Amino acid sequence: MNIESAIYIVATPIGNLGDMTHRALEVLAQADLVAAEDTRQTRKLLDHYAITSRLLALHDHNELVVARELIARVQQGQRVALVSDAGTPLISDPGYNLVALAHDEGVRVVPIPGPSAVISALCVSGLACDRFVFEGFLPAKAQARLKLLQASMQEPRSLVFYESPHRILDTLMAMNTLFPQRRLTLARELTKRFETIRRATVAELLNWVNEDGDQLRGEFVLVLEGAVPEVVELASLRPALERVMQELPTKKAVSLVADLYGANKKALYDLALQIKAN
Ligand code: SAM
Q1: Does the beta carbon of 116 sit less than 6 angstroms from any atom of ligand 1?
Q2: Rounded to the nearest whole angstrom, what is the distance from the C-alpha of residue 192 to the centroid of ligand 1?
Q3: How far is the CA of 222 from the centre of ligand 1 (A)?
Q4: Mutate which of 160, 219, 222 to test ligand 1's pocket (most atoms within 8 Å of Cβ)?
Q5: Are strands 158-163 and 220-224 parallel, antiparallel or unpaired?
Q6: N or C: which end of the chain has fewer CB within 10 A?
Q7: In 3D, which of 75, 65, 73, 237 has the Cα closest to residue 54?
Q8: What residue's CA is closest to ligand 1, atom 2?
Q9: Are 145 and 170 within 8 A, CB to CB?
């Protein structure tokens, strides 16, 4: 298959070379230029498949300038591929400016799907996958990290974090101070020799890594269970509602109590009518 002039966003393996797709190989072999986060790393991958395409560095520090050059090349009829060191470009990796500019300039962008650590971890996490929030890397500074985790505590969807071996312990300790009993899946070295996937409570996982230091090596994805909304027993709100109704009109009283306790307004209004009728 001959590929057309466009920008191809090409996913590459996150550890296991066997995960390189047939289409990714075709595109990389035919590209006039392959933009790569680290050209030495990508050269190794291309050498493995005897692909000799030209490489150009595109990273956080030169992306704006290089993006213009790549767009101009596609406008002249060339085929350009973008890869990152591992996984899907743009997912906690460079490439956003290039793709945004391509849209601005009416240049075609084609996805060549393949591995990404976020999806790989999520689908084996044993936690809800129907809806999730991808947080990428947590902030490096302890205070900012704690603040972000605190802000995420009420999030009902599963949360996915990327983490490095230098910070994994600090992150687990921070989670342990906020929600020790929440379930968490630690996905380490996915698709590689020491792949480990373990679901437990935050406190149990922290104990486990403390006992086995080897579990702190490599690359990590953490999938955190979303907050389970507390079910408020309606009857338990009766005294509060009665008291507030002595001070406020029924509608306002219902609204205030519903907001304060996270209760269903319609059900609370029915309760208010019962109180009034007695
Ligand atoms: N673009 C990549 C993707 O699509 O997953 C992510 C790049 S980001 C710079 C690197 C981070 O992804 C690592 O620090 C780790 O959190 C996660 N990661 C990448 N490969 C992994 C693997 N094999 N196992 C677990 N986590 C991995």
Answers
A1: yes
A2: 12
A3: 11
A4: 219
A5: antiparallel
A6: C
A7: 73
A8: 87
A9: yes
The DSSP secondary-structure symbol of 113 reads: -
**CA distance linking residue 159 with residue 134, whole number of Å:** 6
Tokens linked to 196: 């480990």
User: Could you tell me the distance, in angstroms and rounded to a whole number, from the CA of residue 221 to the centre of ligand 1?
Assistant: 7
Judge whether 183 and 222 are in contact, CB under 8 Å: no
In terms of Cα–Cα distance, which of 98, 102, 80, 91 is closest to 28? 80
Which residue is it, tokens 């509608």? 251
Write the pLDDT tens digit of every residue in 177-234.
999 999 999 999 999 999 999 999 999 999 999 999 899 999 999 999 999 876 677 8
91 lines ligand 1 (CB under 6 A): yes
94 in ligand 1 pocket by Cβ < 6 Å?
no
Q: What is the pLDDT of residue 202?
A: 97
The two tokens of residue 97 are: 């400016």
What contacts 278, CB < 8 A, 6 or more positions away? none
CA 270 – CA 261 distance, rounded (Å): 16
State the Cα–Cα distance between residues 200 and 183, nearest whole angstrom. Answer: 5
Is 171 touching ligand 1 by the criterion CB < 6 Å? no
Whole-structure pTM value: 0.85
Cβ–Cβ under 8 Å, residues 7 and 82 = yes
* Atom 11 of ligand 1, nearest CA residue: 162
Measured CA to CA, the distance from residue 28 to residue 10 in angstroms comes to 8
Instruction: At 156, list the tokens.
Output: 């009902």
* pLDDT tens, position by position, 53-106: 999 999 999 999 999 999 999 999 999 999 999 999 999 999 999 999 999 999
